[in-house]
């Protein structure tokens, strides 16, 4: 067998600029957390790039370095943050308002957070009904707004070596692709014509990709999962990936569902409900925004269970998802799942899960990993012009895959895909877990 060749990856030299769209609960938790880790006040728990290891070679080789020591990843010390927000508060005030981190945590890094002030955002209440932005850009049309975002990017680019953009803003109303999304030419004309099918998240994505900047989407909005964006991403060598951070209830689903399927246990019903009280909960109280989130959450089980291949086990599965706005909870979401399963000879059983999770605490390390890994992808010749980075499916409720190819939702297959991609670009043998070589 020929030895794999390592990719000619550009080194992670200089500052990595992170442009965050929507500087609310997730963004402030991410930014405050990175600074707390840099100051030695906390550990980066939940971050695969910072705490995860990767096995190289055989189990008997005992070669398991940290991922951050194996691949040429950007250092936390080199990350610089900026971004846009529809409210004018600095990051300290925004973090206090989000009420995710306690005052003791925030006060130790208060000067750092106060120093980060958001730029006015592209916002239209038509796409997020429950918010009323006061710190917003104005322009004669959507093309003008896109050019203003491009100007913001270019200004920031002059202060750092590389840039990545990540959407941590609210969930927009449900949109479906139209003619304006089919080609880059049609999309750019749509910007000039103020086409209503072009939402603010698409304006940000267009501006980022046009500037050759990788884009990650932490919400379920229709944003880069469009032919025009895939075209632009490949053209400028700006990687894109899936959408909607896989944090709480869906994370648990992508662990449990593969377990049932692996043992050929049937599932007749899966009822999921959530209560949360942060800005996300308020936005999702609007039926049009909830529809966008619902589509993202509902698709997971169909892809994992493959009912067309296993009709006796999953054809009649009844799957229901509910999200309820409950202000007393703040960012501390509660997700209940009732799962009706059946086993040998069709005998029924039940599993109930009650996940008391902290939404932004789970999302922040995912956002950090995505920023760091998208930056790596852009410095890697074999990945840069692919457009979609399917190996980053691990982080999303709605992974993006090549047109005509079904997405992989099983968390453990996703993790294998991610680690094998790292092995591949670094010139190491892939791990198959076959194991027969130990019994020769």
Description of the molecule:
The chain is built from 17 helices and eleven strands. The chain has helices spanning about 25-40, 50, 65-70, 90-100, 105-110, 110-115, 140-155, 185-190, 200-210, 225-235, 250-260, 280-285, 285-305, 310-315, 360-380, 380-385, 410-425; strands at about 15-20, 80-85, 120, 160-165, 215, 240-245, 265-275, 320-325, 330-340, 350-360, 395-400. The chain has a seven-stranded mixed β-sheet, sandwiched between helices. A hairpin with a 5-residue loop joins strand 9 and strand 10 (about 350-360).
Topology:
Blueprint: E1 16-21, H1 25-38, H2 48-51, H3 67-70, E2 79-85, H4 91-98, H5 103-108, H6 110-114, E3 119-120, H7 142-157, E4 162-167, H8 184-192, H9 200-210, E5 215-217, H10 227-236, E6 240-245, H11 249-262, E7 266-276, H12 279-284, H13 287-305, H14 311-314, E8 318-325, E9 332-342, E10 348-358, H15 359-378, H16 381-384, E11 396-398, H17 411-425
Parallel strand pairs: 1-2, 1-4, 2-3, 4-5, 5-6, 7-8
Antiparallel strand pairs: 6-11, 7-9, 9-10
Record field, number of beta strands: 11
> What share of the residues does DSSP label as strand, in percent?
15-25%
For the termini, the CA-CA separation is 18 Å
Q: How many structural domains does the protein architecture include? A: 2
Oligomer state equals single chain
Q: For this structure, what is the CATH class of the largest domain?
A: Alpha Beta
What about the largest sheet? 7 strands, mixed
Structural Rg: 22 Å
The average pLDDT score comes to 95
- Write out the strand line-up for the largest beta sheet, numbering strands in chain order: 3-2-1-4-5-6-11
CATH superfamily of the largest domain: NAD(P)-binding Rossmann-like Domain
Tally of individual helices: 17
Secondary-structure element order, N to C = EHHHEHHHEHEHHEHEHEHHHEEEHHEH
Residue ranges: pLDDT <50 for 5 or more in a row? none
Structural class: alpha/beta
**Helicity, in percent?**
25-40%
Enzyme class: isomerase
InterPro entries: Myo-inos-1-P_Synthase, Myo-inos-1-P_Synthase_GAPDH, NAD(P)-bd_dom_sf
Pfam families: Inos-1-P_synth, NAD_binding_5
GO molecular function, one term: inositol-3-phosphate synthase activity
């Amino acid at each position: 067998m020929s030895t794999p060749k390592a990719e000619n990856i550009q080194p992670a030299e200089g500052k990595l600029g992170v442009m965050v769209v929507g500087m609310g609960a997730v963004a402030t938790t991410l930014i405050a957390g990175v600074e707390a880790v840099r100051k030695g006040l906390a550990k980066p728990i939940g971050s695969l790039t910072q705490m995860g290891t990767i096995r190289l070679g055989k189990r008997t080789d005992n070669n398991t370095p940290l991922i951050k020591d194996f691949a040429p990843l950007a250092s936390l010390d080199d990350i610089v943050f900026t971004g846009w927000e529809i409210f004018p508060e600095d990051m300290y005030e925004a973090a206090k308002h989000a009420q995710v981190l306690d005052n003791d945590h925030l006060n130790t890094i208060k000067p750092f957070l106060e120093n980060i002030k958001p730029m006015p955002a592209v916002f239209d209440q038509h796409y997020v009904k429950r918010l009323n932005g006061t710190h917003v850009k104005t322009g004669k049309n959507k093309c003008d707004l896109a050019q203003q975002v491009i100007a913001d990017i270019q200004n920031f680019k002059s202060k750092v070596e590389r840039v990545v953009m990540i959407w941590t803003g609210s969930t927009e109303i449900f949109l479906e692709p139209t003619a304006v999304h089919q080609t880059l030419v049609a999309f750019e004309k749509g910007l000039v014509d103020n086409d209503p099918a072009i939402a603010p998240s698409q304006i940000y994505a267009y501006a980022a990709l046009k500037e050759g900047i990788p884009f990650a989407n932490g919400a379920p909005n229709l944003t880069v999962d469009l032919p025009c964006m895939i075209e632009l991403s490949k053209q400028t060598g700006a990687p894109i990936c899936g959408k909607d951070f896989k944090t709480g209830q869906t994370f648990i689903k992508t662990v449990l569902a593969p377990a049932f399927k692996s043992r050929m246990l049937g599932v007749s019903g899966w009822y999921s409900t959530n209560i949360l009280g942060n800005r996300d909960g308020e936005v999702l109280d609007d039926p049009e925004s909830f529809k966008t989130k619902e589509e993202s959450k509902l698709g997971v089980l169909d892809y994992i269970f493959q009912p067309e291949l296993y009709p006796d086990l999953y054809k009649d599965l009844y799957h229901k998802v509910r999200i309820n706005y409950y202000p007393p909870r703040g960012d501390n979401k509660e997700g209940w799942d009732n799962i009706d399963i059946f086993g040998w000879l069709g005998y029924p059983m039940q599993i109930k899960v009650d996940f008391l999770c902290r939404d932004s605490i789970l999302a922040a390390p995912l956002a950090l990993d995505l920023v760091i890994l998208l930056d790596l992808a852009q410095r890697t010749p074999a990945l840069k012009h692919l457009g979609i980075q399917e190996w980053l499916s691990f982080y999303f409720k709605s992974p993006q895959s090549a047109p005509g190819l079904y997405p992989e939702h099983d968390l453990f297959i996703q993790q294998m895909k991610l680690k094998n991609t790292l092995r591949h670009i670094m010139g190491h043998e892939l791990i198959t877990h076959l194991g027969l070589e130990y019994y020769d």
